[in-house]
Amino acid sequence: MLFPKKVKHRKWHRLRNGELGVESRGADVSFGSFGLKSQQGGHISAQQIEAARKAISRYVQKGGKMWIRIFPDRPKTAKPPEVGMGAGKGDPVGYFSMVKAGRVIFEIDGLNEENSREALRKAGAKLGIKTRIIKR
Question: What family does this belong to (predicted)?
């Protein structure tokens, strides 16, 4: 699973609502011939990225190549169950990536169009946001 080796701060500030806009960089297929692009902004956890990576790698195997264009670098905190409000912020429990609308998340190359679309469709089902498949 993906997570940073070292972080400067254990806990980050939360963003305000509406700070997720439209992506200006990372919006085009750069490495492969097909890509999975987000249609809405949101959080993608490290577990979701790993599940999508496994779904794609079943199709890619030895015939193609895959690129992951996002990295979960933001810590997620949570308080234990049945703990009252107050008494500070919870402990870090995992990492996630902030994704804006229009960001390319995965790219594939070396497969035919049918297998590429099927692999990216299955990967998109593992993520918690709406996605679409794009071609270079």
Answer: Belongs to the universal ribosomal protein uL16 family.
